[in-house]
Design brief:
single chain, 699 residues, alpha+beta, PH-domain like, 13-stranded antiparallel sheet, 25% strand, globular, sterol binding, PH_domain, lipid transport, transport, Oxysterol-bd
């Protein structure tokens, strides 16, 4: 009962980009299920300046800082609020969540069973919804009669028999037909006027009707599996249960006027044959370019992704896009709206994961296999924070096949942490590593150089390869990543399929690692990013391994961006280090000797990468390739950015079509296919191995 008490107090409320944040006096009315606010406490006896119904609302703590949170009402209205500190935010969030849950459950208990009734989403819209500005005779009800239908009498039985499954399938087919008619009726509306095909309420109706049918299909599939398990003994061998797929053609949905702004590749003519995902084995026909690090200049580009206004302004476009999708759908072939893009390519994002080269170089300085594994884990966990630009979840450009990105970092030797006695000459003669002659002499400089190259090696599926090396420290990393994105309702999930390999040539050690999944949450309000899943790091030679869990936030309570992990010696199954914290905030490392180390990621120094000026870059290098899109986004000209983006994608499709017609496989520039992965054409380990062989022959 204490938790259901009314609370009140001052919070800062975000109004708009011009006005910004303003103090307002908020009152949580638990009995009515309302969140109200006033100009100040003295005016609380007057009419509230604003009111939100909390039934069906979502209360979301923000990852921007520890003070901010949002209240997203079922009507679509949103309050972005900020408390004075983390404790006060938690107090408000917990009370709001309890009140929201109470009134949401009350609606379900108080409502009668589903009956045949008509309703209008227009009456439930937000205050600024175009649906509320129509004349009474022009609401959605006057155009559509949307109803729930009772099951035919006599069909309700305790146990679902096979013939009843047939009846359910028939009724679902009828429902799908009605939903299809509803979509067709909406899309036949004009694109301008009082009630249009782009009306927010109607777009929401399309999206929710599609989601409802997908949910029913999932439920029907569960019934099929349940029936199959009950009848397991009577099923003939080889019988399979088919998934009831929605019968609505996705291509037929892209008919609204706004569809021209984000065409999907699924609509391309059937005569266009897709490029095969894996190119035939071939030699590198495009000559790899050796980039001179001295031509690269320290990067001065600092694109902050902090625009909160675009999401709300483009709400209709997002709703229209969501109405085309179904749960679990692969988004690889869907071209997303331009306004959600970051101002960088995915290949450059991979480079930004290397923004702490001092920690990377320091891995090989570990005095023991145990310490080197722990140092790698520390570097691995610190790499994700800088890889994300800001708190807003925006999407980097999808790289064009053949696109490349080059950069490097220079790190003063004095800034790299080393251990006493950990020097190059400390190794026995059998461990000495010989550098090729063209790489000798670089250790005379007072800084280390880490070079990076990435290439988009495949379009379908989208696979990127990237490679980084520090010749002076005789270490390199090679990785390939296939990004698989799926629609999950109000979020988008991206699975990073692939593997990385870190080679410490001084020690003859190789560390394999994987990458976590990424999720863009709250895509209808203020989207934000979280990581999830379990990743593993292994070194076969030393027998050390690490298991790291990126925890997604529970629906109620829990912390954002939590990560836990441990490093162990596999032979003895001994845990030598444990880690916990947040991957974008503070990490705590506890070692087997009882010592504890804290790493504040927000205070780690970031080394700016060095990139060649645009005029010296090749036509397929990321920044030059996407420069017009990036410039348009900086200027806020979304339409112009869309035009440039569409031109690049159309060129890629035309080239893909030509290769398919001439049966010409795509040949990469820097990476070669080896087994299931992609390997840099001239990795450091091959150069060192060749140099050692040559030295042995000379001796």
């Amino acid at each position: 009962s204490d938790h259901m008490e009314n609370i009140c107090g001052y919070l800062m409320k975000y109004t708009n980009l011009v006005t910004g944040w303003q103090y307002r006096f908020f009152v949580l009315n638990n009995e009515a299920g309302l969140l109200e606010y006033f100009v100040n406490e003295q005016s609380r006896h007057l009419k509230p300046r604003g009111t939100l119904q909390l039934a069906g609302a979502v209360i979301s703590p923000s990852d921007e800082d520890s003070h901010t949170f949002t209240v997203n009402a079922a009507s679509g209205e949103q309050y972005k609020l900020r408390a004075t500190d983390a404790k006060e935010r938690q107090h408000w969030v917990s009370r709001l969540q309890i009140c929201t849950q109470h009134h949401t459950e009350a609606i379900g208990k108080n409502n009668p069973p589903l009956k045949s009734r008509s309703f209008s989403l227009a009456s439930q819209g937000s205050a600024n919804s175009p649906g509320l500005q129509r004349r009474p005779s022009q609401n959605a009800v006057s155009f559509f009669n949307v109803g729930h239908h009772r099951l035919p009498t006599g069909k309700r039985v305790p146990i679902m028999q096979p013939d009843h499954l047939v009846d359910v399938r028939e009724m679902m087919s009828q429902a799908e037909g009605q939903q299809r008619d509803l979509i067709r009726s909406i899309e036949c509306l004009p694109v301008s006027g009082h009630l249009t095909s782009l009306d927010q309420d109607l777009l929401m109706l399309k999206a929710t009707s599609m989601a409802t049918m997908n949910c029913l299909n999932d439920c029907f599939h569960i019934l099929q599996l349940q029936h199959a398990s009950q009848q397991k003994g009577s099923l003939p061998t080889g019988t399979t249960i088919s998934w009831l797929e929605p019968k609505i053609s996705l291509a037929n949905h892209f008919k609204n006027g706004a569809a021209q702004n984000f065409p999907a590749e699924i609509n391309k003519p059937g005569s266009v044959r897709e490029e095969q995902s894996i190119a035939e084995p071939c030699q590198l026909t495009r000559e790899p370019e050796e980039i001179d690090p001295d031509e690269e200049l320290e990067d001065i580009c600092d694109d902050k992704e902090d625009d909160l206004g675009a999401v709300e302004e483009q709400r209709s476009v997002i709703l229209h896009l969501l109405s085309q999708l179904k749960l679990g759908m692969d988004l690889t072939r869907v071209v997303l709206p331009t306004f959600i893009l970051e101002k960088r390519s995915l290949l450059e994002m991979y480079a930004d994961f290397m923004s702490h080269p001092d920690l990377f170089i320091a891995i090989t300085d570990g005095s023991s296999p145990e310490e080197r594994m722990i140092r790698f884990v520390e570097y691995y966990l610190t790499s994700f924070h800088e890889g994300r630009k800001g708190a807003i979840a925006k999407k980097p450009y999808n790289p064009i096949i053949g696109e490349t990105f080059h950069c490097s970092w220079r790190m003063p030797k004095s800034d790299v942490a080393t251990d006493a006695g950990s020097t190059f000459s400390a190794h026995s003669p059998s461990e000495q590593v010989t550098l090729p002659k063209d790489m000798e002499g670089q250790e005379e400089l007072d800084y280390y150089t880490v070079k990076f190259v990435a290439e988009q090696v495949s379009h379908h599926p989208p696979v990127s390869g990237f490679y980084a090396e520090c010749v002076e420290r005789k270490m390199c990393v090679n990785a390939h990543v296939w990004t698989k994105s799926k629609f999950l309702g109000m979020s988008i999930g991206v699975t990073m399929v692939g593997e990385g390999l870190l080679s410490l040539l001084e020690h003859g050690e190789e560390y394999t690692f994987s990458l976590p999944c990424a999720y863009a949450r709250s895509i209808l309000t203020v989207p934000w990013v979280e990581l999830g899943g379990k990743v593993n790091i292994n070194c076969a030679k030393t027998g050390y391994s690490a298991s790291i869990n990126f925890h997604t936030k529970p629906f109620y309570g829990g912390k954002l961006h939590r990560v836990t992990g441990e490093v162990k010696q596999n032979m003895t199954n001994t845990v030598v280090c444990r880690v916990q914290g947040e991957w974008n905030s503070v990490l705590e490392f506890t070692y087997s000797n009882g010592e504890t180390k804290y790493v504040d990621l927000t205070k780690l120094s970031v080394t700016r990468k060095r990139v060649r000026p645009l005029e010296k870059q090749g036509p397929f290098e990321s920044r030059r390739l996407w420069q017009h899109v990036t410039e348009s986004l900086r200027d806020g000209d979304i339409d112009k950015a869309t035009e440039h983006k569409r031109a690049l994608e159309e060129r890629q499709r035309n080239e893909e079509r030509l290769r398919a017609e001439t049966e010409t496989p795509w040949c990469t520039k820097y990476f070669l296919k080896e087994g299931d992965g992609w390997v840099y054409h001239k990795p450091l380990w091959k150069a060192v191995s060749a140099a050692q062989t040559q030295q042995m022959d000379t001796n």
